[in-house]
Design goal:
homotetramer, alpha/beta, Alpha-Beta Plaits, 11 helices, 8-stranded parallel β-barrel
Chain lengths: 340, 340, 340, 340
């Protein structure tokens, strides 16, 4: 950490800072510039209260050098996290395809989708059983019954199951049916839920909140990691900006930035960012081209009849074509190298 | 609702839409313009699936005329909501002052603050017992012990208690000590929590999420209202923008817009928007000048020693001065009139 | 256009609107819904003042059906614009590669870059001669001398020249040396400059302003088109958002949206969005994967010695590798189809 | 400036940095922390190329300590800029009221408004003669004829004239009629125009661009100041965010932040931020309450007949009432103190 003092600071203010640092066993390095005095701080700053420090007389601002997350940082695992769930490798050399309907609606629907995506090489079946909807009057999902349907469909085609959990109350029951817990954008800073999920011994897909910076996102991931669950994946799904031509602005630049800052695998959900099916294939291709470790794509056997987010779900034939393109592109895209 | 058809639409596509509307007992009004055919829809659209409709051939887009919230809309209560909690009137002719530390830390701290704010005319004591922090390694609050301290301090000075609840698990216990439940920005779209809070028969202060549009915010309020709890207040606390000179951008324009769209009382929290104490008084005055029904201001007897958000808490003497200014200004500010 | 009246509107207010429309030879179509009366407007609305209309008693809001740009709209040229400059085809089946240094600095520098990019298949040499810098104390470019150097280097390798013009004063002189005029993000709503550029008979590359919606961008393009210059290309270069991990947020979703809304070719500048070289290749690949008609990439023979934006310029060998990847990917990316 | 080196940096990389600094007569101060080596730089950094430095091996990032603007910074004039134009004091103890129509349309119109605002105590008449419009088909202003009308109306009531200039070409002619040059949001980074304006010996009102950070805004101001024109005023008029309930998000927090960072007077234009008249009075009151040095408010004798931005212009009687409220409030608002 670096402490930047105000212009023309008094010596007594500098002495005060030095004294505070020394009582915390920290070593101050003082640089007196032409306009400012700057104090570098060396040592274990865990017990130091930075707010306290920033309010001392003469202090202009603090510049943190290390980030507030530790386990999520790239330096914790410079080679990148690679782990298997069942026999599917996440974070490895091949992107993992996750697909399925926005919401599970019926046995027929979920089996139809499971077959299509399995034929295309997808390894994980997605589908909402608990739906966070902006209006309380919209379809809220089938709950446990939906999870059971997904489990059966996934088992029939050798797929894993991922589904969003929106409350601690549902965790234990849901854990019987799913392989990966998804945290949605609207709960991405529901820290109580994150901590609870970190304890149930299931891998986690953490979506980005619509207004969360990459640093805050990694702070949320740290809540899960610090409970001992290291199989955490991140999923970019668009942020809120002034542009209204689609639902959210897919932050394609977040992919290479995350590859520098964290060792966690990075997924992209082009369907929620787009909000309509026509935009999904170009965004999906872009995500892979930018280095994503996998995609979550919404696929529905008959989108016009879907009970939620009908407009953004791909028809099976569109998904087949998208996967064909992506598999072709992949051989030309250099896997992002380890950062040191 | 209005359905805008694509240019040069086929008659069969228009007939299809008419047929769908008629099977839902809706009356179509067709306007054939020079470039577009437009279909107005009259009748009870509750059972109509708009996603289904938007995917029909020939449809370009739908334009909703009514908002998705009902109970939160201004037309539900055109004169505005005014209600009392204890003997404090919310939404009435005088703004309500809510103040207190970011987090409850000790009996001494909370009693000192309670006295100061009570002397200044504040009616509600705020203080965090469950703190949502972006890092899992930061101070997380005293929990129930903190609520107990607040209750005692509030009772000693005739104040109400407001505190943030971050999990359904804490609701029943917390309800013993608090008068108003606060929902924080990070849980503002945690719909499960909102629905649970709507059932416990306590008034609610709903903060705005950092990326939530005003329409989405009112959708969240509707989750609480639709459970039967009508004593809901909204609290603007800043949104995420590109500007980094303060913590969040206080959306001052949201105040008059909310006064048009909803009957719910509108509060402002200048402390979290600002992120540092020097900016709090100008933002607080601006909020009152723009027509806010009250303020939440962070006050701490000794900010540099605070365990969280030290930088943004006002010293008691600064709060006293701020209240003096606001009370003077108030007589010149026209109360926003009812909208019809 | 559709006029949505307020709830419980008076008949006299509806009559007033009808009367205004009829004096403009427009035909009103009235739908009386359960809650609202809605008036569809059919006819030539060119002479109608919509602000005037929106202020009439009883009017809640207007919903435009057609966009405010005409020549830039996709329906003006549904098959998409394809045009040649020299022997280079823009908007056609192959993306056009534009590359070069941020600023022209010397003969050596520009000849070195021109050779490298030409060897990689780039067809257009870019380089700044008039640099818009956020600080008046930064390097401002070589002016006409820089344009002369670019012209010579381009001619030596059979390339076209593109360069940014920041003032009407420079247009005539600059037109002697360049093949394509670039309008930078900071001048994207400098309407006087746009109109002047539209008159000089040179094709134009119009960058997007950092806070411009896609609709506003097309409005700016219309300023050029309406002067008779139809060879206009758009260049996405990142928008301002709350994220600070890179310079601007590349709006990858703008590419497919523009392909729907306009017939103009769409380019992407990953270098300015990224702000540092390590992020350029993933963003460049993503742009091509999303359907861009070409790229502007900054390449410098020795980035650490560059006089401006050193951090974001690729070394020649990195550009060579990027072009190799992109050319491989391209065969798998379906060209975005015409929209009808 | 501080240079933060990468973790486990090699001694040779540190030596390289030290060597570069020393050849520029700068003194390095090295702090070796547990995880990072940090180098403080003392001396005159004017000739140092920071991009060059940031690309050296082992460098993670640079932290600037001083801002890139000098003349615009608060420390250049810690007591704040106060200057007179005619007999009107700007930046002094009383806010200056500027008002008038969006666009000058006729003698009648501008005389009517001039009288109303003069009666209310306004000192400056505003009105657009060159209108930057997002569509080339909208009313573009009366040009010099409009300026002449403003001059006559202003002289009749003892007012100053402010008007927006959008091109260098118009400067000399316009200077004959106006007292203050306004730079609009869309030209706020048109550096050529800024530099030209800085030379004509007229005071300047510089609006904020919709995506400009406060730091970038002060960079634009520096372009004018560095040409020798010190009578520069800033005008906040709203920024682009995800919220669509009004035209732009008025950044009320910018006011106190600017009071810390710069000595230049700070104005607010609530009319353009709001986009409709009903929101103007609350935003105007908020601006004054937050410490603005004055307001620009759009007033029109008959808004429904206005040729541009009809929806956002106040009727004269609404302006009269707004001024009454503001004058009352003012006596309770502590003038923001000098910052030291």
């Amino acid at each position: 950490m670096i402490i930047i003092m105000k212009p023309k600071v008094r010596q007594s203010d500098v002495d005060n800072i030095v004294s505070i640092l020394e009582t915390h066993d920290l070593v101050p390095h003082i640089s007196e510039g032409t306009f400012r005095t700057i104090i570098g701080v060396v040592g274990d700053k865990t017990k130091l209260d930075t707010d306290h420090l920033s309010l001392q007389p003469g202090v202009e601002r603090l510049v943190p050098i290390l980030s507030s997350y530790k386990l999520a940082g790239r330096s914790f695992k410079p080679e990148g996290s690679v782990f298997s769930i069942g026999d599917v490798e996440f974070g490895g050399s091949s992107p993992v395809q996750i697909a399925g309907p926005c919401a599970v609606e019926s046995y027929d629907q979920i089996f139809t989708v499971a077959k299509v995506i399995s034929d295309c090489g997808a390894k994980v079946l997605r589908g909402g059983a608990y739906k966070p909807r902006t209006s309380p009057y919209s379809f809220q999902g089938l709950g446990v019954a939906g999870l059971q349907m997904m489990r059966e469909a996934a088992d029939a085609f050798g797929l894993l199951v991922i589904s969003e959990i929106t409350s601690e109350y549902d965790l234990d029951e849901a854990a019987k049916y799913i392989d990966i817990v998804q945290v949605g954008a609207r709960n991405a800073q529901n820290f109580r839920l994150l901590a609870a999920i970190g304890k149930i011994k299931l891998p986690v897909m953490l979506k980005r909140g619509m207004a969360m910076s990459i640093e805050e996102w990694l702070g949320s991931a740290e809540y899960i990691l610090s409970e001992g669950e290291y199989r955490v994946m991140l999923c970019e799904r668009g942020i809120s900006t002034f542009e209204t031509a689609y639902r959210s602005t897919l932050d394609i630049g977040a992919i290479p930035v995350l590859k520098e800052k964290t060792h966690l695998p990075v997924f992209v959900d082009p369907s929620h960012a787009a909000g309509r099916a026509a935009l999904v294939p170009p965004l999906a291709r872009a995500a892979i081209a930018a280095g994503a470790d996998g995609l979550l794509v919404e696929v529905h056997p008959n989108p016009p009849e879907a009970k939620s987010d009908a407009a953004q779900q791909l028809r099976p034939e569109a998904y087949v074509e998208l996967m064909r393109q992506i598999n072709g592109m992949l051989q030309y895209i250099e896997k992002v190298k380890n950062h040191d």
